[in-house]
Amino acid sequence: MSDYVAPLKDMSFALKLAGMDEVAALPGYEEASEDLIAAVLEEAGKFAHGVLSPINWDGDRNGAVLENGVVRTAPGWINAYHQFAEGGWNGVPFDPEYGGQGLPWAVATAVNEMWQGANMAFGLCPLLNQGACELLSHYGSDDQKRTYLEKMVAGQWTGTMNLTEPGAGSDLSQVRTKAVKDGDVYRITGSKIFITYGDHDLTENIIHLVLARTPDAPPGVKGISLFIVPKMLVNADGSLGERNDARCVSLEHKLGIHASPTAVMAFGDSGGAIGYLVGEENRGIEYMFMMMNNARLNVGLQGVAISERAYQKALGYAKERVQGKPVGFKGDKTPAIIGHADVRRMLITMKALTEATRALAYYAMAQFDIAGRHAEAEVRAAAADRVALLTPVVKAWSTDVGVEVASLGVQVHGGLGFVEETGAAQYYRDARIAPIYEGTNGIQANDLVFRKVTRDKGAVAMGCIADMRATAASATGDLAPLGAALVTGIDALEAATKSLVDSDPVTVAAVAYPYLRLFGTVAGGWMMTKAAVAAQAALAAGEGDPEFARAKLATATFYATNILPMAGGHLAAVQAGAAPVLTMTDEQFGIDL
Length: 593
What we know:
Blueprint: H1 8-18, H2 20-24, H3 34-52, H4 56-62, E1 65-67, E2 70-72, H5 77-86, H6 105-118, H7 120-139, H8 142-153, E3 157-162, E4 178-182, E5 185-196, E6 205-212, E7 225-230, E8 232-234, E9 240-243, E10 246-251, E11 262-267, E12 273-277, H9 284-318, H10 341-373, H11 377-413, H12 424-431, H13 441-454, H14 459-474, H15 480-501, H16 505-510, H17 512-541, H18 546-563, H19 566-576, H20 579-582, H21 586-589
Parallel strand pairs: 3-6
Antiparallel strand pairs: 1-2, 4-5, 5-11, 5-12, 6-7, 7-12, 8-9, 10-11
Helix pairs in contact: 1-10, 3-6, 6-7, 6-9, 6-10, 7-8, 7-9, 9-10, 9-11, 9-12, 10-11, 10-17, 10-18, 11-12, 11-13, 11-17, 13-17, 14-15, 14-17, 15-17, 15-18, 15-19, 17-18, 17-19
């Protein structure tokens, strides 16, 4: 089974494209020098390769199990997690006041990609914990921060997100878990499903962030509050007290990510779990959106990571497997299948999509850093708007790409790709959850068109499009064909954006997903054109590795000629409107069969 190798040069290149120089100049990030970042990435790569990747396959085969009320993680998980926490890896982007390293989120994004690429089932635990830390650092009271943050940032405790319930699915307005005030605390009763790492044996405590309703709360999402419900109650001196009334009652049996325990949680079976209100009552959704958006960006990053892992596996196989002579081959010794044109087409498609999604995810997180720390309020606001616009695109487009690339990885392996022992199938199975959780990709599309585009009449989207046009204009000389291809894609995106602004809500909803795919495809072209411009400049200046730069140019050219033209098809779907989607009757769908 091949081990994961972090693509450090690609990651460093993507960070530079994202604007790492500007991020490193932000207040509080002055220590984030190029040398320090390189050292952090190198050490993270060693950990991903040497510790997390080797246990990925056994984790998939053995999974997490629930035995006598105790969740036991897969073989090797406890030792790996203890090394992870002792290395300070969970605290990369957090305030040194709570034991964090104080590095930019953009750097943490590159590090997090390594955890997800090496072992996605393992990486889900710190992914959720980092989101919980981010939420509490903003909305927790001073006492809550003192009680929980330092140990969560250190990875000594982990955090979870408890949103959905049986029958509710993604509709959080249906949340029925109750919270009844009892002195200074609340008694929580109800059940939650699909809780990633809802219970495990990696740490001594788990801090659940739980959405629930107080008795007099208004209906719908406006009546939901947020509570801290620790697995083990915490004494005033910080030591652990008795077990709280919160338990895992079952684990889901899933298509993939077998080693990640997905728990059904029961709160209050023995009188009510003790919970502590975060902020004010009835503002839980508002607070939770910080954790949800953090998770959405990181789930998008999982799409990038699983694409990279699948690509590495397929490339390694294609360089070794010998079968058939390529068309036009005249040698005596049959070469490996990487010599076949169609295999090369699949591999460069995998590579181009992986690099495009990586660049977009890193760029979004760099904007997140700017939104949080830039000295000028106007710049912070513009960056925050850009992050909000791109969050559903990064989440949905990158995770769809992850499934597509993992599927191509199976295809490169041929029949052996369908056999579990080769490992290619695991990446495909693991990738499939990412377009579903943290809001299905259809929900992300609705978020994009209703909350991020039509609400402000397309103003923020058009600002992003203007930046895309500036990049296209910078592609001159030998890169002019790439610039022209990007302009064609931008024109399609602009036309679609204007049509959404002028459409009725029913039509907008019907074409939301093709619009998101259009946005992602063009945004990927934007990033790849930026990559080509940077690579061409490096070649002209005689800087860096010329073969690496030429590979970037080749991959960007392939994206411009083979992937970016798909924008036209997405535009056609948007312009077709609601009729093809909504006019079929139940009988025509075959509902009566």
